[in-house]
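INFO worker-7 received task bundle
INFO bundle size: 2
INFO processing item 0
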Amino acid sequence: MYNKVITLTEFILKEERRFKKATGSFTLLLTQIENAAKIIASHIKKTGLVDIIGQTGKKNVYQEEVQKLDEFSDRLLIDMVSESGQAHAVASEEVEKPIYIKKNSGKYSVFFDPLDGSSNISVNITMGTIFSIYHKAADLKQPGDKQVAAGYIIYGTSVMFVYSAGAGVNGFTLDPSIGAFILSHPNIQIPAKGRIYTINEGYWNLYDQSLKNYLSSIKKEEKPYKTRYAACMVADVHRILFQGGIFMYPSDSKHPQGKLRLMYEVNPMAFLIREAGGLATSNGNDPLKIKPLSLDQRVPIALGSKEEIEKYLKYNS
């Protein structure tokens, strides 16, 4: 029996045809991100076999240790997005200032976290890339509900490209035998509820009492929730997207604004979760409606299944 194979490129082209004024620009841009992801995936699989493991000895703008794979992924994405000819500006979590591409009149601004979870490199645990795309604007600091598309690539037992352009969420798995991402998970819908929670409970003593009360309550239910934490937002949100539950990176007494970046991590993931039928909240506010004050602004975030976020908000709002 023959089952039609739909590649990521074919899917993007079909999706772009929904817009009468489409020029193919968006397809070219996403194709470059796709190609960069394939190269990053290839290098991740060679970690330990080639000289691309370990720290660079430098720190990024957030004073975090920069890994060699971080630097490689960052440079690759900047170069490939820039060379696509479709981007007006590129901003990366790893660089201090956005890069304006003056040689073309690209239509889009692209934000990315080039290698989320890079602290997992040395122990061979899942990592990912997060991207967010906006229409060109005079001010790069646009709220998340202005995103044209957002997604992530997860480098795990298989490599998956998950994205949304505002008409649902679709997942594509890399078939290494042909070097193409194939539609494997069409129209992803997050379960309305789930019994998985993701949070760094090592910060327990720093959390406020309302959050402690919520966490205690879900542990005391007749069927207690299970905790899962991979120290990689892509991996943790990917699990929640498919199995249901709640992902939390809240504020605490040492980090009153939270730790995750609004433009690079929170907005794209909140966009995906919303498109899949879930909810996201930043201290009771819709994160996608926050007008960024700076490109590196941090905010607290909880996202996941609709019923689980509603339960969370009863304690934390």
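INFO item 0 finished
INFO processing item 1
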Amino acid sequence: MPIVSLPEWQEFLRHHPNAHLLQTAEWGELKSNFGWTPIRLTTGKRGGQILFRKLPFGLTLGYLPKPITPEDDMATNRQFWAELDLLCRERRAIFCKLEPDAWDQDPRGRSGEYQSLRISRHSIQPPRTIVINIKYSEDEILARMKQKTRYNIRLAEKKGVRVRPWDDLVAFHKMMMATGERDRFGAHSLEYYSKAYELFRSGGMCELLVADYEGVPLAALMVFARGNRAWYLYGASTDDQRNLMPTYLLQWEAIRWAKSRGCETYDLWGVPDHDEAALEAGFEKRSDGLWGVYRFKRGFGGELKRASQAYDRVYNPALYWIYRLRMAGSEAG
């Protein structure tokens, strides 16, 4: 079986500079500290870092996020799937969830090789997002934003909000917890954010930025970059001085950081899973879930995108049926 070691995986990724963040060795090591076991497979130009989660009675769940699938290798390389099947069966996986590194309507996400997989109604990563093209000059990026967003960025600058690198993970975690309680989303532990910062920043793939006013932190975010892509994964703000619009300047400086690293796209990572017409019709009326997030993110001039559908490769049909039943029940509740 072509399982590779961590150093071998890092060497493999060197030949795929634009592989997704979730396929990096650092992401696997992060998850290994919080209940997942990463196993890395390569067959030719194809590769995947599979995460396994232990279940009772020696069973597991497998998760393959954004695997590396070169276009010239999509339809013919069956060996990877055979090796994945062998690995999952050895690990007694009920199923392995696959999320292709492709957008909806992209043929790479609808390849014939996925026909043996079940289309899944449930994804792990946010299915819909806004992606900003940052190949342009800073003036052009600003010009593509909504007028109100440009105004808020300049207001924050004019009023004396300052954005700078930060390393106070304890304060960042407190801010994340407060934001999660206010906006009703789950935050990770202090240990999680600290480990992510440690792993990715040492390789130049992460920065923690804070927006403060007269030395008081008002908002902070953690931005990640690899190859020509950047991702805004974690962000928080206080209830203090919101009239100074610190989150707008903070996001702009994160975009500038990503651009300085040679990134061409900036993924705002998660908005409500509705088409653009529904989002535009509803964002001024709704504030539940990610609707408030969409109201903020839409102003930065990006393109609404939906990830390719998720798939499940099933190894234990009976237990998989129970899983689907429970997921359906949680949706109904």
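INFO item 1 finished
INFO post-check item 1: Residues 3-124+308-332 form a domain with the Aminopeptidase fold (CATH 3.40.630.30).
INFO post-check item 1: The chain has a mean pLDDT of 93.
INFO worker-7 idle
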